[in-house]
Write a structure and sequence with these properties.
This protein is mostly helical. About 75% of the residues lie in helices and about 0% in strands. The chain contains 14 helices and two strands. The chain has a two-stranded parallel ribbon.
């Protein structure tokens, strides 16, 4: 589990700060999920290509990772520290192939084809939905299983919480797509938000509206989460809401030129307000 903490410190200061707000019973488990997600994402986003692997070898590496995850969940052990930590979490929280298979399917969608050209690869609405479900919504569902692993939920609570978790994952992913337009287009040759060569300001406005609706769905079920998970989730939600507001005030040309970020002082303020709001809740 220490290996997972190292991965988080290396890749995301914001996520690291949010996980520190989680209760001790959740913290390491969520870090273990995030660490595996980061390793798989890096595998398909250029690290293996930079090491000289061919597209076929990259696909083989991803398949070996997925197979090792499946074996580790079944046995409770892997010699790979990140996979071992994830498997311990998966076994404790009931995370199984119903969630890991869609995740790895989305990762495979990011692999370069053996005959890749310089043409931009676009995602239509169906492809976008499948990709976001596997790459982000199932991660939200994994975290939800961690948070609720010791609770009995009725069918309505389960449905509402799962919808909120999926909506929050989708909002996070769609914000990141807008933030990373330049890198996704120029380095990776992908447009996750459409099939056209370049998005317009009208497209940006439509995506911001969709993100706002997703965040609203997630915010509505915050009171159903255990209190020792709520401050962290609320902080992450409010951070991405702040990013969405900044994107709403940023032209599409600017988004293609730079990555929108929230200043550190504002991140701190968001976290403080989220902690205070949660502390004031009666349950």
């Amino acid at each position: 589990m220490r290996a997972s903490a190292v991965v988080i410190r290396s890749y995301s200061t914001s996520f690291g700060a949010a996980t520190r707000l989680l209760g001790r019973r959740h913290r390491a488990h969520v870090r273990n999920v995030y660490a595996l997600v980061r390793v798989a994402d890096e595998l398909v986003d250029g690290v293996t290509e930079g090491a000289g692997l061919t597209p076929g070898e990259q696909a083989d590496a991803l398949q070996r990772l997925e197979s090792e995850v499946g074996r580790a969940i079944g046995s409770g052990y892997s010699s790979d520290l990140i996979v071992h930590a994830f498997a311990r979490t998966a076994r404790a929280a009931g995370i199984d192939a119903a969630l890991t298979a869609p995740f790895f399917a989305s990762m495979r969608a990011d692999l370069p084809a053996p005959t890749d050209t310089a043409e931009l690869r676009g995602f239509d609405a169906e492809q976008h939905g499948a990709y976001v479900y596997g790459s982000a919504e199932v991660v939200g569902l994994m975290c939800l299983r961690i948070f609720t692993r010791h609770r009995s939920l009725d069918a309505l609570e389960q449905h509402r919480l799962e919808r909120g978790a999926r909506s929050l994952g989708a909002a996070f992913q769609n914000v990141n797509f807008l933030r990373d337009l330049a890198d996704d287009t120029d380095r990776l040759g992908r447009n996750y938000l459409g099939t056209q060569e370049r998005l317009t300001d009208a497209d940006r406005i439509d995506w911001v509206r969709r993100i706002e609706a997703e965040l609203a769905d997630a915010r509505a079920v915050l009171p159903l989460l255990p209190k020792d998970a709520r401050a962290a989730v609320r902080s992450a939600l409010n951070l991405f809401a702040a990013l969405s507001r900044r994107i709403s005030r940023t032209t599409i040309d600017e988004l293609y030129a730079r990555r929108v970020r929230v200043p550190d002082w504002q991140k701190t303020a968001i976290i403080v307000r989220s902690i205070a709001r949660t502390a004031g809740e009666t349950r």
